[in-house]
Amino acid sequence: MKSLPRIHPVYAEMGTTVFERMSALARETGAINLGQGFPDGPAPQPLLDAAARALYEKSNQYPPSTGLMELRDAVCVHYARTQGLALSPAEVIVTSGATEAIAAAVLALVSPGDEVILFQPAYDAYAPMVRRAGGVPVSVLLEPPHFRYDPATIEAAVTPRTRAIMLNDPLNPAGTVASAEELDAIARICVVHDLVAICDEVWEQVRFDGVAHRSLMVCDGMAERTVKIGSAGKIFGLTGWKIGWIAARGNLATALGRVHQFLTFTSAVPLQWAVAEGLGMADVLADLHAGWAASRARLKAGLEGAGLVVLPNAATWFLCVDLAASGVALTDRDFSERALREAGVATVPVSALYEGEGAPTHIVRLCFTKPDAVLDEALARLGAWVRGL
Ligand code: GLN
Questions:
Q1: How many domains does the chain have?
Q2: Residue 81 in domain
Q3: What residues contact residue 126 under an 8 Å CB cut-off, 6+ apart?
Q4: Among 236, 230, 215, 242, CA closest to 86
Q5: 303 and 262 share one domain
Q6: Which of 137, 177, 261, 350 could be stapled to 127 by a disulfide with Cβ–Cβ 3.0 to 4.6 Å?
Q7: Which atom from ligand 1 is nearest to the alpha carbon of 23?
Q8: How confident is the model over 14-35, as pLDDT tens digits?
Q9: What's the CA-to-centroid distance between 153 and ligand 1, angstroms?
């Protein structure tokens, strides 16, 4: 008898990610998709023009594996301006989105048996990647509604095998931001235990608290032990472009470049040109931000108007609703399934972004980066459906 192809155990039992599943269901059923995070208004015209010009006027052949020099330069200038970082282009590697950057970082840093501290909730790509690298994810739970980092709990999760910590700040799905004290405490733990920090900072530009983003990279002792990951998809609301980057110092950057060269080698070059130009377009960035802030206020007011309790949030494209506090006696998964089929609105159950024990089951996430009419229709549908529960 012929044997079946053997699939790596990490993938053999794996389902489809909640984001893909919700988007597919929304497409199938015609539901309004407030699940997977993406804006669906018009893309910024100057970015589209820049990409079109690049297609016609620039080379369409391989750029350097680590990315166009012009883009790496623009990323350095952007970070110097917005976060006071002093990076050189040699310390930036352009990737096919942040998800590739995360994979490159994990593959470069995690060896079999290494433990990696993952805060929960987390992007559901982290743990499988750690496992595929032979590492062991170690969960540290963050509790709603504030999702604070407790240094004692983190410290207790560290063992002699701990190699790295993965930090998503601002935090998706919660939309919360780590305080300076929390970042300093995490940095101290990394330094004392000689850990590397893989920092998924894709929401760094999507903050509504008026505070400039502060990377873990600037904390004492962290410059040489931080992998900072950014995303043009999030900065410009162009999630399908899949242009991201990694910033890291010295031999860390070299190692990440080596992984990247055999993961994707490089990323779509016209889009790299466009992002390089776009990072200099202060007006475009300001307009995008203002639009998202208005959409956030609109969804928040509408949800509250429908009697739903919205958790505190300072960043990301998402608002979270506390079902229990809203008097909705459904688990988040039931709510999401039923809202999709009965109200025609897709959401994300936050427990899908936790692994193992202890996930809260009373929170759902909604994406607000949609045109006003879409938000209003979603609110009308959800409001009527919730009233009838
Ligand atoms: N960041 C996206 C979200 O939170 C998910 C990313 C993806 O679907 N690959 O919705």
A1: 2
A2: yes
A3: 102, 106, 118, 137, 166
A4: 215
A5: no
A6: 137
A7: 8
A8: 889 999 999 999 999 999 999 9
A9: 27
